[in-house]
From TrEMBL:
<dbReference type="InterPro" id="IPR013750">
    <property type="entry name" value="GHMP_kinase_C_dom"/>
</dbReference>
<comment type="similarity">
    <text>Belongs to the GHMP kinase family. Mevalonate kinase subfamily.</text>
</comment>
<dbReference type="InterPro" id="IPR036554">
    <property type="entry name" value="GHMP_kinase_C_sf"/>
</dbReference>
<comment type="pathway">
    <text>Isoprenoid biosynthesis; isopentenyl diphosphate biosynthesis via mevalonate pathway; isopentenyl diphosphate from (R)-mevalonate: step 1/3.</text>
</comment>
<keyword id="KW-0444">Lipid biosynthesis</keyword>
<dbReference type="GO" id="GO:0016126">
    <property type="term" value="P:sterol biosynthetic process"/>
</dbReference>
<dbReference type="InterPro" id="IPR020568">
    <property type="entry name" value="Ribosomal_Su5_D2-typ_SF"/>
</dbReference>
<keyword id="KW-1207">Sterol metabolism</keyword>
<dbReference type="InterPro" id="IPR014721">
    <property type="entry name" value="Ribsml_uS5_D2-typ_fold_subgr"/>
</dbReference>
<keyword id="KW-0443">Lipid metabolism</keyword>
<dbReference type="GO" id="GO:0005524">
    <property type="term" value="F:ATP binding"/>
</dbReference>
<dbReference type="InterPro" id="IPR006203">
    <property type="entry name" value="GHMP_knse_ATP-bd_CS"/>
</dbReference>
<keyword id="KW-0479">Metal-binding</keyword>
<dbReference type="InterPro" id="IPR006205">
    <property type="entry name" value="Mev_gal_kin"/>
</dbReference>
<keyword id="KW-0547">Nucleotide-binding</keyword>
<keyword id="KW-0418">Kinase</keyword>
<dbReference type="Pfam" id="PF00288">
    <property type="entry name" value="GHMP_kinases_N"/>
</dbReference>
Amino acid sequence: MEVKARAPGKIILSGEHAVVHGSTAVAASIDLFTYVTLSFATAGNDDSVKLQLKDMALEFSWPIRRIREALSSLAAPSSTPTSCSIESVKSISALVEEQNIPEAKIALASGVSAFLWLYTSIQGFKPATVIVTSDLPLGSGLGSSAAFCVALSAALLAFSDSVTVDTKLQGWSIFGESDLELLNKWAYEGEKIIHGKPSGIDNTVSTYGNMIKFRSGNLTRIKPSMPLKMLITNTKVGRNTKALVAGVSERTLRHPNAMSFVFNAVDSISNELANIIQSPASDDVSITQKEEKLEELMEMNQGLLQCMGVSHASIETVLRTTLKYKLASKLTGAGGGGCVLTLLPSLLSRTVVDKVIAELESCGFQCLTAGIGGNGVEICFGGSS
Ligand SMILES: Nc1ncnc2c1ncn2[C@@H]1O[C@H](COP(=O)(O)OP(=O)(O)OP(=O)(O)O)[C@@H](O)[C@H]1O
Ligand SMILES: C[C@@](O)(CCO)CC(=O)[O-]
Ligand SMILES: [Mg+2]
């Protein structure tokens, strides 16, 4: 019995951080995925849960009796998404520590904890092997944590009584609307273990795909009426979303008034940006004019992110470099390093794009051009895809 799930990463076009404090944000899925394969032992003599992080060349294994002993108070499996209690967080941390993750890869510990919570909550104490691979750079602002939690929830739910899926379906298939809602809620519980206080935008866009507007847990689907091309530059400066989100919250506690104006401004920027993307181009408002407005809004959003304290010298270098070519950029995701978006206007020549990429890469950055707005989470039975 085997199922493979894939969930996309994302870019945030406007509103990161402010969305944690109730502002509107706009995000889109990208065609870079995290894949999770779940298989249950058939022979019956393997009595452990194994997690293989293939890209990292790491493998973890827990005997079922050890998991059962550590999480004895858990009423597993559960059909409704539940938060990991402080007591369970401690037990799970002990299970993760026993695996002796190398110091250089210790950031993975929170992902492994999220895995143990989602696995035991949805599947209970059942032996299995879970294999994870990803196209996404981890901890870089492209939603790797959310894609991991969404793909994991999808694979685990596919073999649970909580959802109705046809295991005989061939190729990649999608979940029904109510199953997606359940899956998204489970993924959010995983994100909480990794992020501390996530808004839920990352797991939501990874679940539903396409482009969304998100505010206080509610999503509105956006139908773009114009092509949108973004260059994604990975500064390769590592950072972690949990610490950056906590930093903004601390600044908000110190300066509540000033920060509430910043968050309100971001809310207006996101709404305006969503309107521009959706409104049809007409003779008097050409695609170019719309792109110019988007560029201005991206610059304004970046200024406010600087105000929140989440920019970084490497991000500023990308901004300066792209500005030389009259291109507008903003950080995407949690900032503090990670990835930067640059709008590539539709009339921009390939020569200019190549020059910008060459200059950014000469600074040691890595440039990606990903497709924007594709499908959300999908599953495939039988391991054929
Ligand atoms: N494929 C994966 N395997 C295991 N753990 C993962 C994987 N992808 C993400 N994680 C977990 O998520 C952490 C990175 O999450 P973090 O939220 O800091 O960055 P991000 O999600 O890539 O960026 P952002 O939240 O800004 O979009 C990793 O350190 C790890 O714990
Ligand atoms: C920084 C943040 O706004 C986006 C991270 O991609 C955090 C969140 O919304 O959970
Ligand atoms: Mg994340």
